[in-house]
Design the sequence.
């Protein structure tokens, strides 16, 4: 993985660390004050971890599918939680990673899945494998 793909993995890894740390502190300190918000922070952490690992292995079809599911789930989560946090603020009296479309994270949670899905669309495993095999006359890749 090179270029934009590598940057994408790094940003997902940073988000995984940030969301994991945030949710751990929120749950350890005051889970009873905002169980929905803090549980959603934990869910976002898991999604970022899975997306990071799946993007690393996305050259293989199984991981590619996992990356699609994780990143699509992330996009839906950001849009739903972001919208609800603005239209029904009583539900989210405490911030989550995805509240207000990730405003607390400079809107990175809103734009990151869009970039991730674009990258997955443009880097399908079949294209990668075909490009690698095109370098040899017999298609063996060796």
Sequence:
């Amino acid at each position: 993985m090179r270029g934009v793909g590598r940057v994408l993995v790094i940003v997902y890894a940073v988000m995984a660390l940030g969301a994991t740390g945030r949710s751990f502190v929120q749950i350890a300190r005051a889970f009873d004050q905002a169980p929905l918000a803090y549980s959603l922070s934990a869910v976002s952490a898991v999604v970022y971890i899975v997306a990071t690992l799946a993007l690393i292995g996305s050259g293989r079809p199984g991981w590619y599918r996992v990356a699609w599911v994780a990143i699509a789930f992330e996009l839906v989560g950001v849009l739903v939680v972001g919208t609800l946090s603005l239209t029904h603020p009583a539900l989210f009296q405490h911030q989550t990673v995805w509240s207000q479309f990730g405003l607390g994270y400079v809107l990175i949670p809103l734009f990151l899945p869009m970039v991730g899905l674009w990258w997955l669309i443009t880097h399908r495993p079949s294209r990668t494998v075909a490009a690698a095999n095109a370098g040899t006359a017999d298609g063996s890749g060796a």
